[in-house]
Task: structure prediction
Amino acid sequence: MTALMTPTVAVLAAYIGWRQWRTARNKLMLDLFDRRFAVYQAARTFLAGIATSGSVAEDSFMAYVVATREAKWLLSSELDEYLNKNLYGMANLHQATISELEMAIPGEQRKRIASNKAR
Result:
């Protein structure tokens, strides 16, 4: 009987160790999901603000930059480039065009700016 106890305890310890490893791996995946979802939520909130007001508030820019600064470690390089260069750049260009339109004199100059914005 004592001869069977040692292998039984070893198998039980191996099983417990394997379950602990799986639990830690699942927790890591959940934590990674939570962090990725926070980046998604920031991009969604940023775009929703632009869609509802038609312009980008300065605090919205800052909140977006802060929330997406970890994207290069959490997401693929393509998504990081899209979030931090393309999306941010387009929003920045949009806001610059809005500001330019507000300061433009009505007439030909305003039409030119508006037609450039439409592209």
